[in-house]
């Protein structure tokens, strides 16, 4: 860009000295500072052909390789997705379609699938929901962060935001609110079918939530005892839950408010279609891929009704790259924008050559 | 004193008649007349808060935010926390409140200054120093020379003979000549005898306070006798006592009842066209907001019906909501709250701050500072700046604005020889510059040191005892009505009624004919060092019909001579036939003088026979004592004796223009600003000034003169003129019919083009007809075709009417500039009023919006400050609307993906701080520092001013462009993060498509995009701009990392739920890729578009910028040279600016002092000889 620091010389139109007649202190003559006289040194960039055209070409040249890189990376990610909602009558889970909360015995179904390619690196297991408005305003605010942070008074007196899920049977609900109440509670189990034998795959349930959520945002109520049952004394479970919050898991560091499944659920999604991390499948040794190609079966304990509002449930197995999960959008967008920039650069160049010099400044009267 | 916003005191009863008694406070107090303190301030310490808040909530924007605040308190509707509205509202209220408080404090200060001025008041027989505010009706006060008159007074007595008192009324009516007031004889006797004054118990009965400056009726009852009182006995507040040692006055009206205060009226609140446009736009935005909310409410109804109803398993409807329609209704209001940021609350405050800042630049400008009387320019109204960049019409006063009101004896023609020009060695006439050698008058001890003359040959002629030259100056020293004043010996001061006369007598004085003293019967002149006493026999006074004056004197030698000076046209008729050839030569010189724009007079004399004169004198005495037809008889006698005169020569007086007036007018004309001169002066004078300051020139196609005496004549003249200028303008005559139809709302006349450069001169009485009803349209159409319009003999009211006329029919911004009280009306009427300051406490300045000392500063005010202010304001508005639309509309798009639930995209803190913290300073920096070209180039290319006049930089179309740009950006800002985050995860497999991460990403994109955009809009990158932009971004990141930190969450759990989002999100490479992509997508089209526009359709500024860049490679251009004076063949007129002479007063001797000091000491007295030899 045109760089010109204009250090303008003092160009005062008045004969100096006359104004000082009243004495330096008395004169009302304004100060001669660059700021007051609007002479601050400045850089005045101007859009010229010399700056604009290279910018277009350079952006084009940068964007296209980035886009290709992202696109390739995204395409290299292995992903396998099963919709197990069961709306299709042929689906094994069709029988569970009209399940309700707390139905006993729970409805279970099994879906078999085949992975054609092995998953080499760590595999992440997600559940995905569609048409589920976790971003609805009333839903988003229907929680009490103080309660979840272990504040004892909020535990017994949940915020009004939690209505209508703040009390049940005259007891405060812990955790209160619509988000907690609607917590996803399907259980997914994965088996590799090797010669008709089902080999369970170890699913790690810890390390799926943000560190800050697990360690700062969510805390169990404090008290003299480590016994969660005692600490949650005086509260009741959310309406939809089969069991209270202190019985979410057997391990103490994954129970109560700091249960990671719960924390993941409480981090509400931005869009009505979302996926949430459910389990981790770690790579055991370097010789074998984490998930070999072959047959697998997914056991589902189908507790979570979504059919009434046309919701969909998915199970996703995915590997991860440096830029996250599979998403071709960014790569395509970069390639497109880069190409357009390059093309526009050419167009502008042509226009500049044809018209740019036509407009001389001769028609400005001096 | 600031008179604006003045409220007249609370009067329970309307005063019918004023009744008061001198020296009787108890009696006068019964009537509860206002005392002399004035109050222009609005608040005091206790009433400030409630009153100010009440006023602020009367503004629609503030009321709107109050309404929003109330909406937010309804739980079903509330979609945002209360602080998102309260914080900005409190801040806005606080900023405005502080500004009001400072303003009011200043008003208090100036009130106090005026109220605490000292004055001497007579209490219990003793003079006591008191403050102005303690003066009450009925008090007797003493004023001394050069004092301001404290209140409206009845003059009782003064130090001068016949209790005359001289006052200057400049502040009141703009006239700078002295006026004489005279007390009643019965009160004059009181003198300065304090006892008598204390015993004075006259009762005054007079009219109630009113605003008529020239009228007063009342009666004074003293010891049972009644005396009529009129305006001649009144000293009005605002006047200044001059040439009078002391005087006593009785307070009749005080404080708010004085005529000055009653006259100042209420100041009309001026608003700029951008203000008006902004109000319209705000309404449009409201409509747009309502439309968006309506769409979203409908969407919500449908969504709740189709999906929300079934989703109730997880999210039951709110309490009381039982149908989708009702939910939609509530959501309408929720969205009103969320989308309220399209009507930015900080808009008005920012606009005020920007205007204030730009006003300070005007105050600070050294190039508009006038060192001679230490006057800087002043922006008295801080809310009109950008309108200075849009001026199309300038209405200028003449005297004191274009001209200095200083008359300089410049040239003369004596006995056929012209003096006053300077010739160089080669005999060529040269331009007089600062370096030209002046004539040295030091040989003459009585010379006026300020008098300047360059032609040495005239002094030589005087020294050589040339008879004609001596006669010429003798005439000038005798034939006048000037009063001399010599307080110290040799220090002569002339009190002239008109500056022309003063200039002539001063010239004679310097050339050795010193008018020293006068009595009713004699005139003492020191002629070449020799004191001579002439016997003054008669003054044949000046009046407008005669256009000449004569004196008849008897010289010490006993010769009887009549000396006459007057307008050439008149005097030439009276000349003796013997001076034929001299007449022609002198006429040639007169033409030459007139061509240079000088005011000319012809002087002649006549020797009288003793017996004829005695006989004439007798008849003159009879006539002057005649009871009826005195005037006619006298003028007959005058005409009888003023004939067969011998021509002596002619004088030429320069009505000095202010410095740089012609150049300024030329520059302003180049900027396509039309200049109209509205003057009270006569036609000849006005036209002359028009020529000498380059408004009219000889290469104009024509200068039309409208001087019809009936409305038909005026109409005819106007039509003829217009037909010549633009014959086509009669083809679209249906336009006129349309305009005459009152039902048509649009009264704006289209722009018409003349086929050449024309000028128009309108006379006062023609103007009166032209301003009436159906003619005014003709006047506007004709006048606006002309480049220059000069209206002469215009009354103050007509000045305002003319301005009003142009305001009414032309969509143009007008500026009125003047210096006197007669300009106040037009200054108040025009969009912008400019006062010429310098003389202390002028009324024009007080009612003006901007003031400075010299007319030439106008070009800098308009072309530099005005243009910059306009560009800055437009850039600010365009950017401001853009950034708020880009910010707000993201919520709109999000509505489609969040069940139309009025969920915000951003963190609530971001919404609170966006306008106030994150984006306010960069845009403020731009609107305070931006300049596309610097001041020198702005002046060099006046064409750069045109876009402002045509309102190109911010109008409805530009606004729509900003909105579309904002909508585009908001689409990018929503859908790029949407696409990139859809169903995806972080690089460690954990959540990133959660609401909080999405919010953070969107708001970071937005902030960086608008920061880059402001960078793109900034044409002038100072260190401050850099600091503001980078600073705002850093502050943003600092704040989010702080607000989303563990500590903040643990302390204020409920307020900062976004804990950890910044850390977890901004560490992701794909988030930065998204941000980068959004920036490029938002900014590149703008860059490309602007580049294309500058290539394909370059605006005038683009071209100038290109030219400047080319020129910058070369050394800076030389400063524009001052043009040589034009010579033309214009014929000038004669000018005495007053109506009636002082002759009668002089002959009666009423204004003479009893003793005349120093009358006998001549210039070469022994005393002065001694001094000379020292």
TrEMBL record, chain A:
One BP annotation, GO: positive regulation of protein exit from endoplasmic reticulum
Record-annotated membrane-spanning stretches: 46-72, 329-351
Region (Disordered): 1-31
Topological relation to the membrane, as annotated: Multi-pass membrane protein
A GO molecular function held by the record: aminophospholipid flippase activity
Record keywords: Cell membrane, Cytoplasmic vesicle, Disulfide bond, Glycoprotein, Golgi apparatus, Lipid transport, Membrane, Transmembrane, Transmembrane helix, Transport
Record bears the keyword DNA-binding: no
Residues in the signal sequence: none
Domain of life: Eukaryota
A GO-annotated cellular component: early endosome membrane
Cellular localisation: Apical cell membrane; Cytoplasmic vesicle, Secretory vesicle membrane; Golgi apparatus; Membrane
InterPro entries documented for this protein: CDC50/LEM3_fam (IPR005045)
Primary location recorded for the protein, binned into one broad class: membrane
Family: Belongs to the CDC50/LEM3 family.
Protein name (record): Cell cycle control protein
Source organism: Gopherus evgoodei (Goodes thornscrub tortoise)
Gene symbol of the encoding locus: TMEM30A
TrEMBL record, chain B:
Listed GO MF terms: ATP binding; ATP hydrolysis activity; magnesium ion binding; phosphatidylcholine flippase activity; phosphatidylethanolamine flippase activity
Binding site for ATP: 397-399, 501, 542, 565, 599, 679-681, 793, 799, 822-823
Gene3D superfamilies, per database record: Calcium-transporting ATPase, cytoplasmic domain N (3.40.1110.10), Calcium-transporting ATPase, cytoplasmic transduction domain A (2.70.150.10), HAD superfamily/HAD-like (3.40.50.1000)
Domain P-type ATPase C-terminal: 845-1099
Bilayer-spanning residue ranges: 80-98, 280-303, 323-349, 876-897, 909-929, 959-978, 998-1016, 1028-1051, 1071-1092
Domain P-type ATPase N-terminal positions: 21-86
Official protein name in the record: Phospholipid-transporting ATPase
Species this protein is from: Gopherus evgoodei (Goodes thornscrub tortoise)
